[in-house]
Design brief:
Pathway: Siderophore biosynthesis; mycobactin biosynthesis. Catalyzes the dehydrogenation at the alpha-beta position of ACP-bound acyl chains. This results in the introduction of a double bond in the lipidic chain, which is further transferred to the epsilon-amino group of lysine residue in the mycobactin core by MbtK. The chain is α+β, with helices and mostly antiparallel strands. 47% of the residues lie in helices and 19% in strands. It contains 5 helices and 8 strands, in the order E-E-E-E-E-E-H-E-E-H-H-H-H. The protein folds into 2 domains: 83 residues, Butyryl-CoA Dehydrogenase, subunit A, domain 2, CATH 2.40.110.10; 141 residues, Up-down Bundle (Butyryl-CoA Dehydrogenase, subunit A, domain 3), CATH 1.20.140.
């Protein structure tokens, strides 16, 4: 019998079946992550309700909703995996999830540089292309350098993942670095657009709005720093 709610569920509006992490056993003081299981719930189940679609700053193409469960009966055959083993399953996939976010972050940052470069070449200020001003050159040079560094780190992580060697710490470092690069680069490239960068018909504005979630979902930047810090030989 499943009771409770879930918030910030991407794809919840369109899903026919959802995987729900829920508590099926008592939490142990020495293992707070124990007692969690994954249940597969059909969207036609009595007591299962898809709530409102949440209005987001960015990523408007995907739905994000609230889900609620009120006395939803789930047969034992719809448990996914072993009882109480949910956290292990989730943690196993976290490095790949964070790798995927990094791929999108680097791609978005690279696209921002392309857009800003094109705009700077076309936009004329005081009779000359914006690209001819030293500030424009320096900003784009800095952004291109950061994207190249992020791409190199991403390529290394992709190779490690292919070998089955991408661990939680390196994935955290990757997500932290690439999403912070994405934020800085997109912001600087929008600034080069001036007032037009704030107008949604310009692609850079959409990149700016979409970029903000990268440092939140899949584990916030603060969580990534915590993971990396635990891997260091620091005093406790």
């Amino acid at each position: 019998m499943l009771d409770g709610g879930k918030t910030f569920i991407t794809g919840g509006r369109n899903a026919d079946r959802v995987l729900v992490v829920c508590r099926t056993g008592t939490a142990d003081a020495d293992d707070r992550r124990g007692g969690l299981s994954i249940l597969v719930v059909d969207n036609t189940s009595p007591g299962f309700t898809v709530g409102r679609t949440l209005e987001k700053i960015g990523l408007h193409a995907q739905d994000t909703v609230e889900l609620s469960f009120s006395g939803v009966r789930v047969p034992v055959e719809d448990r996914l995996g072993e009882e109480g083993a949910a956290f292990g399953y989730l943690a196993h996939n976290l490095p790949q999830e964070r790798l995927t976010i990094a791929v999108a972050a680097v791609a978005a940052a690279a696209r921002a540089v392309e857009l800003a470069t094109g705009y700077a070449n076309e936009r004329r200020i005081f009779g000359a292309p914006l690209a001819t001003f030293q500030n424009s050159k320096f900003v784009l040079a800095e952004c291109a350098t950061e994207v190249a560094a992020a791409q190199a780190m991403l390529d290394q992580a992709l190779a490690a993942h292919d070998r089955g060697e991408l661990d939680a710490v390196d994935a955290a470092k990757l997500k932290l670095f690439t999403t912070e690069v994405q934020a800085r680069v997109v912001d600087r490239c929008l600034q080069l657009h001036g007032g037009y960068g704030y107008i949604t018909e310009y692609p850079i504005a959409r990149l700016y709005a979409d970029a903000r979630i990268s440092r939140i979902y899949g584990g916030t930047s603060e969580v990534m720093k915590t993971i990396v810090a635990k891997s260091l030989d620091l005093a406790r």
